# Entry
Amino acid sequence: MKKIILVLVAIGFVSMAAKMPTANKSVVKIESINDKYKECIAACEACIKSCKACETSCKKGATCTKTCTACIASCEKAVKAMKSDSKDVKAICAECAKMCEKCATECAKCEGAEGKKCAEQCSNTAKMCSQM
# Structure
């Protein structure tokens, strides 16, 4: 009788464990989402870094600084959309591509190294985002 009860208890534990959600399924899903956008997220993050450096070193003036600030906001929004696999990711990335292109054009006019680097990075990010 004791053996039967132990077997039934063991079966109960096994069936409960089988019904419990596992973290592995969600981790796999998150990793596949991130892989889907991995390069674009990396480009946006590099663009953010480059724009922040350009903002602090720019001698050109308010136009460049405002453009970099808007570009940073646009890239941050795109990264957030990609990481959450938003249904609007394509539209947000298209918007980001436009802003990055605008920033690249503006920063290309800068004489400093940070401005040139920012223009190059923004141009690269615009290409990546437009492919989303």
Notes: Residues 23-29 have pLDDT under 50 and may be disordered.
